[in-house]
Amino acid sequence: MSAPNSTPSGTTPVHHRAAVAPRVFWPAAIVVLAFTVYAIVFRGLAARQAKALQDNVIGGFGWYYIVLVTLFVVFAIWLGLSRFGGITLGEDGERPQYSMGAWLSMLFAAGMGIGLVFWGVAEPLFHYEDPRPGVGETPAQRADAAMVQTFLHWGVHPWAIYVVVGLAIAYSIHRKGRPVSIRWSLEPLVGDRIRGWRGDVIDIVAVIGTVFGVATSLGLGVLQISAGLNFQGWLDEPGKGLQVVLIIAVTALATVSVATGVDKGIKLLSQANMGVAGLVLLYVLIAGPTLFIVNDLVQNIGTYIQQLPKISLYTGATEGPTGTSWTNQWTVFYWGWWISWAPFVGVFIARISRGRTVREFVAGVLLVPTVLTFVWFAVFGGAGLHREMFGGGGLVGPDGPDRDSALFALLDTLPGGSITAGLAILVIVLFFVTSADSGALVVNMLSSGGNPEPPTWSRAFWTCAQGAVAIALLVASGTGTQALTTLQTVAILIALPFSVVMLAMCAALVRTFRAERG
């Protein structure tokens, strides 16, 4: 085994201080620019083509995604419990680079924090109003199934995806001394050939997927902020102009944060973010139906554990086209989305995990965020379900829940809703900033040859690029979100080839761990 932080004999050291890696930076930048222009100029055609591709991928490979992500859960748990769990992601005996609280705050905020705010109230209501085929018809049965289905989409499965990618990269950069890049996680399988075009393609795909994913989140996220401002009556029908200003503001904050580095901007912002989010959660728990929320959390965790093997592999086949369509629309869509985010989140988690053991990494990434996620959905989703089942309703309209304003509609039913709505908007903004700055840092590291501390100008470039893509597609979408949705669809399509890379990562991890223990 090569010593930590060393370069294999007979190979050329990688120059970490390169501003850009031309074979990654320029192809990725050109593809991002070209597709953005295409999605704007040929908006309708691009949307139809992306939709057709998505239908074919999800329709034909739904079973593959379901089996694959379940295998990742089993693989992650096995790694954590195996004899490899004591391997340090760094030099033997090295202490973690960040405290447990800072580490968990950063990985949680980058991993899915903004999604929890966006879907915390809306998704359980969607599943309650339009349940998975085969679920019982009584309100109690639909409510139980809604929470368990939400737990499936946001629980151990997505975090297992991040474990696979993050652990493979963390081992290669902290234990083997390789640059911060996805390609090096496959070195145990392909050897020195990973320095060539194969590695370039992997990193290019990761850069494109990250930029598209973060840009989509920026664009769709400002819709929730503007919906909240409109719902509270603070602004009347905010239009594209305000949304563009919001993206510019978030991009500016993210630029400042990413320029100051992980140790200052990103870490402090993530910790502040978790603090404010915790305040909002605590308020809803106390001001809302507290006893119902606590009881429902305990009950739903029990049902989730009991049904996990069954719902993990549910494809909807026995329910006919209705069942498979529902599963493809929700579960398979989520698995593709999480895999498309895996390069971004995996690289970022790897970057901040130096000094952790494999067992600490798996437990921290797989279990702690899952528990926090369950608590979040139990509080917000449970309060929403209680309102619909036992309260005055009003959260579900004739066309179902409004995903953009569901959170603010719930807060409006509680005392002091306006103040809490302001805090909720602050949480959304902070989560956007942490996603944008960590995404820009990841893209920057990948496009600079794996430099863990890339130059400030390129950090600012990629942060602004993400914001510019979001603005261009949001404006081009007219009164809707067609161009943004097209970008999101393409990001999910990237998940199919990257899933093969993830399988190779699993094989590479097993091979290199066995070699080390041997």
Task: Reconstruct the topology from this structure.
Layout: H1 22-41, H2 43-81, H3 100-111, H4 113-119, H5 122-129, H6 139-154, H7 156-175, H8 187-190, H9 197-231, H10 240-260, H11 262-287, H12 290-312, H13 320-351, H14 358-390, E1 396-397, E2 400-401, H15 406-411, H16 417-447, H17 456-476, H18 482-493, H19 495-517
Antiparallel strand pairs: 1-2
Which assembly state applies to the chains in this document?
Answer: single chain
C-alpha end-to-end distance? 10 Å
Extended strand count: 2
What's the alpha carbon Rg, rounded to whole Å?
22 Å
What general outline do the C-alpha atoms trace? globular
- Enumerate the spans where pLDDT stays under 50 for 5 or more consecutive residues: 1-17
Beta-strand content bin = under 5%
Roughly what is the average pLDDT, rounded to an integer? Answer: 87
Helix content: over 70%
Order of helices and strands: HHHHHHHHHHHHHHEEHHHHH
So how many helices? 19
Q: Main sheet, how many strands, which sense, barrel?
A: 2 strands, antiparallel
Class based on secondary structure composition and strand pairing? mainly alpha
- Largest sheet, order of strands side by side? 1-2
Account of the protein in words:
This protein has 518 residues and is mainly alpha-helical. Helices cover 75% and strands 1% of the residues. The protein has helices at 22-41, 43-81, 100-111, 113-119, 122-129, 139-154, 156-175, 187-190, 197-231, 240-260, 262-287, 290-312, 320-351, 358-390, 406-411, 417-447, 456-476, 482-493, 495-517, and strands spanning 396-397, 400-401. Strands 1-2 form a two-stranded antiparallel ribbon. A hairpin with a 2-residue loop joins strand 1 and strand 2. Helix 1 packs across helix 2, helix 9 (197-231) crosses helix 10 (240-260) and helix 9 packs antiparallel against helix 18 (482-493). It is globular, with a radius of gyration of 22 Å. The model is unreliable at 1-17 (pLDDT under 50).
